[in-house]
Amino acid sequence: MRFLSSVLAAGLLCFSPIALPAAEAPAKPRLDNPFFAFDNGAGYDRLSRDDQAALLAELGYDGPVGLQCWGVRGDIRENLKRSITVWRRFAERMAANLQKATPVADSEIGRPSTPLAAAGENWPQFRGPDNGRSDATGLPVTWSETENIKWKTPIHGRGWSSPVVWDRQIWMTTATDDGHDQFVVCVDRDSGKILHDIKLFYNEKLQITNPLNSHASPTPVVEEGRVYVHFGAYGTACLDTGSGEVLWQRRDIYCDHFRGPGSSPILFKNLLIFPMDGIDVQYVIALEKTTGKTAWKTDRSIDMKDIEPDFRKAYSTPLLVRVGGSPQMICTGAEGSYAYDPATGEELWRVRHPGFSNVSRPLFGHGLVFVNSAIGSPTLLAVRPGGRGDVTDSHVVWKCNRGMPLKPSPVMVGELIFTVDDKGIATCLEAPTGEVVWRKRIGGKYSASPIYADGRIYFFSHEDKATVIEPARQYKELAVNKLDAGFMASPAVVGRAIYLRTKTHLYRVEQ
User: How far apart are CA 240 and CA 217, in angstroms?
Assistant: First the structure.
């Protein structure tokens, strides 16, 4: 789904600030492909392309008209006037922001810092213990419904949360199609048998949810004896992994997601941490993992009072890293990314970047933090961590806004970053410089994040396809595999198996 195909002139699509010619004219904002459709309160009532063009012409707008997306309620003409004004302001802010980037000397980048966890036998959280990388070996390259499938288990309802693994258990969440009932499901890793199928929450009132999303999209986090499940504003709970008993739950942590929940929780010492970035309020909160009581809560500091409510929301998952021997939590939100002290919630530094509905998780390596600006013109930014307050003008090393994803998270292998955008274009970049090494259309649409394991990169599409490539400076496809349904959840890797959740089933893929 495209919201705004470009807001910059064609010549400024991917650049390092060091290489930007001084004589080049500033890029002019361009309102390409606006999308308009309106929720009539009962369902989605869309305008045809011709009707959009006629109505926009009547309102004095003669630019190109794009496909449709879900918009705001109310009178169509008034909403179109408002939307055109909002998108123009948004485009101008993005164009201005992309002109601001101070070069950082190579000597200032420093040595790579290390993640807080190393890959092992468990896959305890979204993207695993090493942010989409695994040291597993002996994994299959090819599979199908009749090849390299150890077991296949149907998962009822509709849920896009990714599977997490601890010892012999695999946990995930799901919900009824209408979203009123929400469940946590546990599957035996060896047999595929369902061990627990527990209804946690009933929701009488529901928020608006994008048809691409589900009411069970945040991924659980698991540790020895405890699993923590999160459904955004609908509720958060901790369960005993043996008995399935609910140890505590919270249903009073609120924001208006407006498109459904998406951010997954993480664990830091005795804290369960997650962002709540809605159209009404935006904050990060930490709960005591043993009791569920609030330990700290920090409001986002970027002033969004003049930003349209729909442009204030985000769905990204925080990343814990270690910088200069101290832990920092990198957390992307609308209009910017932040670093916090995970123990106290104190904001350490922030970088501004226009964009909203951020889903892609941050990345860390080579002494740099990589964050994605999301909807608008998706831009990957490399940021030197450190400093205090707003470091946008001093710590941004490079930016690339060509072929970057809205939803899938990137993965790093050595000095290379691999990613796929929502429309199926895979890209390989140099992490230290942002230089594009190659770009290749692999086809399909994507929400699931790629993984690196056993010397290969795996991509998973909405439709039914998994593409396997070499993590190299030249694109080399190793296999294209298909199952009966497509992927919204990201995979887990433990031992010699890949655990894949499609829209309908959980698979153990193993040679």
Answer: 21
Choose among 183, 250, 176, 185: nearest CA to 214: 176
Residue-by-residue DSSP string for 434-460? --EEEEEE--S---SPPEEETTEEEEE
Clarify whether residues 381 and 443 are in a common domain.
Answer: yes
- CA-closest candidate to residue 260, choices 178, 362, 163: 178
Sequential DSSP letters for 151-162? EEEE--S---PP
The predicted pLDDT at position 50 comes to 63
Beta-carbon-side half-sphere exposure of residue 175 (alpha carbons within 13 Å): 28
Q: Is the pTM of this model over 0.85?
A: no
Percent of the chain with pLDDT over 90: 72
- Spell out the residues 6+ positions from residue 319 whose beta carbon is closer than 8 angstroms to its own: 131, 266, 329, 330, 331, 361, 362, 363, 364
Give the domain range for residue 86: 14-98
Q: Is residue 1 part of a domain?
A: no
Whether residue 159 is found in the same domain as residue 82: no
Distance CA 56, CA 430 (A): 42
Pair 401, 349 in one domain? yes
